[in-house]
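Encoded backbone
================
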Amino acid sequence: MRYAAGIDISTTGVKAVLVDEAGDVRAAASQEHDLHAPRPLWAEQNPADWWKGTCAVLRVLAETESIDASDIGSIGLSGQMHGLVLVDATGEILRPAILWNDQRTGAECDEIRDSIGRGRLLKLTGNDALTGLTLPKLLWVAKHEPETYARIAQVLLPKDYIRYRLTGEFATDKAGAAGTLMMDLSSRDWSSEILSTFSIPRNWLPPTFEGPEVTGVLSASAARETGLAVGTPVVAGAGDQAAQAVGVGAIAPGEVAVTIGTSGVVFCPTDTPRVDSEGRLQAFCHGLPERWHLMGVMLSAAGSLRWFRDTFAPDQEYASLVEGCRDIPPGADGLIFLPYLCGERMPYADPLMRGGFVGLTTRHRREHLIRALIEGVSFGLRDGLELLRAWCGSPIESVRVSGGGAKSFAWRQILSDTLKADVVRVNAKEGAAFGAALLGGVGGGLWASVPEACQQAVRTLDRTEPREAYAARYDQVFELYRAGYPACRTIAHRLSALESEAPGPKGAAS
C-alpha cells in the first residue's frame, strides 16, 4: 500500500497525518510550539521551532508499525497564512516570524491604501489592507528595521520555510500567496503593479504552484532528520484554510465550511474570483486549479477558550470545561462574551478592539463564563455566515465543521442553534493536515484529482440540527451581541492608547 503525508504548521504546533489509498488515517503526530508577544499587539514565533517540530512528527510517521518509510510517496504542506518569514542569501532566518494575528501594522495598512487606492487594491488582490496580511508586515520591517530589510533574499510564508528546509527549494502555493496582498487574484500570480508600487524585488518572492503540483523532493539532509526517503516528492499544498476546506470536501460552490480553530473561519468555494466590495470577506485562490474562495476570519475562536483555560483553569481538560456548561441555558443567564482578544478582522477590521464579558453578576459561575464564551465565538462565526448568505443570495442550510472546537458535541449544538443550519462533521480530525495529505496524494499519484481524493477520503460522521426554540432565543441574544462592538469600541481604543503610553516596564505593577 502507498501513503501520503500531510503537515500543518499551525499557530499552536506542528501536526502531521499519514493517509492511505482508502483515505484512512494510519498515523498522526503533533508537537506544540510557543507563541511570543514581546510587545502589545505583537505576535511572533521562531521558525526554527517549526522545523524541530516537523522533524519530530515526520519521524513518528516514518516509524509507524507495519509501514515502510519508502512507501510514503509524497508530502503535502499546509500552515498558518499571512506570516512573514525573512531569510538572507544563505537561507538563514533574519528575525522572528511575524504572524497572522500580529496587529502592529495599522499605519502601513493606511500607507498601502493611500498609495494604490482601496478600490484598486480590492480589485487586484481581492482584499483590503488588513494588519494580518503579509505586505503590511514587510513594509513595517522596511520602516522600523532597515538593517534587516537590506539583507532580505527571500520572503516566505511559514509552511514555505519548512518546504525550503525539506527540499532546498523556494516555492509557494497559490492559495497561500493570495493571502499576502501581493498577488493578482485573477491571474493567480504575483502582481507586478503591487510589487512596483512598493519597490519589492520580484526575486524576493518564490514561484507559485497549484496545490497538487510537486515543488521539489526531500533532500538527503532532510531525509536523515525526518526518517523519510530521499527524493520523496514535496507538493505545493495550500494555506491552512484552503487545505482545511479540501480536508472536509468543500471544493465546489455551495459547499460551505466552518472552522473552529485558533481563529474562526467561514469558507465558500467559487468557480471565478469574487470580491466583497466592502472588504469584509477575503477573496483568495483555492487549493485546486480553477477554484477560488470567499472567506471570513474572526481572530480568536477556539483561541479564546485556550486563553480562558490557560488563565483560569490550567488543570482542566478542554472537554470537561465545555461539557460542564451544557446545563446553562442559552444566553448564559444574561452574560455575553465579546471574542475580540486579538482585535478583529470580520466583520470589523479593527486591530485595537478588545474582548470582554458583558453582564457579569455575582450569580455567574465559571460554567456561565464558558457558555457565554462559546456562544460569543459562535455569534462571531454567524457574523461571517450572514455575509456569505448575503453574497450567495440563497439560504445556507448546512455547513461542514472542523477544528478543535468541532470535537465537542456541546459546541456543535450551540453552533447549529446559533447559525440556524445543520452542522456536518466529517472524518478529518485535523482538517488542514488531512487536506494537505490529500493534495500531496494527488501530486504523488495516489489519486487522479482533488475531487477524486475527496470522494474517496472524506466521509460524513454525524449531523447536528438546530433546535427551533434555542435558535429563536439566540436570534434575540445575537442582536445584543452585535450591539457590543459599537458600544465598547471607544473604550477599547482609549485603553490601547493608555497602554502604549504607560510608564515603566510593560506588565509591571507599581
Residues 238 and 430 are 14 Å apart (CA to CA).
